[in-house]
Hints:
This protein has about 210 residues and is of the alpha/beta class. Helix content is about 35%, strand content about 20%. It contains 7 helices and 7 strands.
Amino acid sequence: MSQTPPIEPPFFARTRLPTEHGDFDVRVLVDAEGREHVALSVGELAGAEDVLVRMHSECLTSEVLGSLKCDCKAQLDAALERIQAAGRGLVIYLRQEGRGIGLGNKIRAYALQEAGADTVDANRLLGFEDDLRSYDVAVQVIAALGIRSVRLLTNNPLKIEALAEAGVKVSGREAVFTGLNPVNQNYLETKRVRMGHLYGRVKLSA
């Protein structure tokens, strides 16, 4: 029987996780509110530079139910595949559904979108800011694993700013543009135009 890997603070649990994307070292961190966040890694990270890192927020509707309204599951799958291909990297799965408003309010926002609002205006009509997510846990994970600098897998400039403001060295960015379909095209275009996401101009494939 192989030896169980050690559990380092601030992590609560750790083991090996075989998946359809390959084998990962999986750790769980419990935050002050009792939410369990997940760090999936490949390779030796302590002291490493230019590590591929994806900070990914939970999306039950896409990742579990197969919703076509966003590209979240496709982005998560792509990130896991890319860190496996690189032989080193980290995906931090953050439990903050619906850009931080929670699952129930996300469904309420979807209903407003069905009535004609875009994703930004739907949040505002419900009394929320455009994006309530925090990346403090991700910063904690990166520091705990001893990563010296990251290449961030993201289309969202706010994630780059959040890490830089927290003192994490971001040495580069790699786009994660996938999962486009006729249902989510307007959603992705809204993120590009109104939220500054770095997609380039969104177009459906021929």
